[in-house]
Amino acid sequence: MKTKTLQIPKRNLVFSADGELDGNEITFKANSGRPFRHPFWDNLALDLEGMEIRKDVLPILMSHDHTAPIGSFRREDAHVNGGLLITGKLASGIPAAEKFKKEIRAGIPFESSVHAIPLKIERIEDGEEITVNGHTLKGPGNVFRSWELKECSPCLFGMDAHTETNIFSFSSADELVPVDMAPLSEDDRTANFLFAISNGTYSPENTDNGNAEDERLAQELFDMTHR
After folding, report:
1. Is the CB of residue 126 less than 8 Å from the CB of residue 138?
2. Virtual CA dihedral for 217, 30, 79, 50, nearest 10 degrees?
3. Hey, which residues does 57 pair with through a beta bridge?
4. What mean pLDDT do residues 192-210 have?
5. DSSP 8-state symbol, 182
6. 3 state DSSP class of 95
7. What's the Rg (C-alpha) of the chain?
8. Ramachandran assignment for 149, one of left (phi > 0), alpha (psi -120 to 50 degrees), beta (any other)
9. Which residues pair with 131 in a beta bridge?
């Protein structure tokens, strides 16, 4: 199967989470498993069964800044149970970590987010719907069928006045990240076809050639990032 390498701004690969700090222990309620609105991906769902953690230990960064690591979490401390919960430890004696803890003790609120790289994206067209993590996603939208968790970050950021979604502001937000988008396998396409027939959402006009559809989606996403 062909893959298409897209250049996507890092801000579009960072997703909102809830964060709690207790001493040196930080907890990220990283994802509920439910679809959510995203200004780049439309309706989006992260398939939690498709999450990959490729290292034994991953970093906790301050605002996704690779020059400001403040702690870490282990692979076994990322639990999927109806959602994604991650527990890690902040480092002691690291200036960025001590500064963050001091700000929290002073009453400054913080939000959190996670950095995820999609490995396989499924496009859900307008009028279609699909079940992900036990929840229904209605198109138009996208599902990260497989994705790699890269890191978690506490962040101090605000709302973009032009959207209803948090647009994260951090030093490398506009950095372009190469993403290899793999099309769905024929087995995946057949399963989606049968599901559409079973729930009454099948439409003959949605039977484009698979390769052509993959190319169309890749070009559409590429164009969106280069406007």
Report:
1. no
2. 0
3. 74
4. 46
5. B
6. helix
7. 19
8. beta
9. 136
pLDDT tens digits, one per residue of 32-70 = 999 998 878 889 999 999 999 999 999 999 999 999 999
Tokens of 53: 């953690």
CA distances (Å), origin 209, targets 41, 135, 182, 194, 216: 23, 28, 16, 17, 11
pLDDT in tens, 132-173: 999 999 999 999 999 999 999 998 764 444 444 454 667 788
Six-digit token string for 33: 């498993």
Separation CA 19–CA 27 (nearest Å)? 6
Domain boundaries of the chain, sorted by first residue = 9-176
- Residues 58-73 as b or e (16 or more Cβ within 10 Å = b): bbbbbbbeeebbbbbb
pTM for the complete prediction? 0.76
Distance CA 15, CA 117 (A): 11
Instruction: Give dist(CA 222, CA 224) in Å, integer.
Output: 5
Average pLDDT over every residue of 95-116: 92
Q: What angle do CA 157, 161, 167 make, to 5 degrees?
A: 40
Lowest-pLDDT choice from 45-54, 89-98, 118-127, 176-185: 176-185
Tell me the two tokens of residue 196. Answer: 């559409």
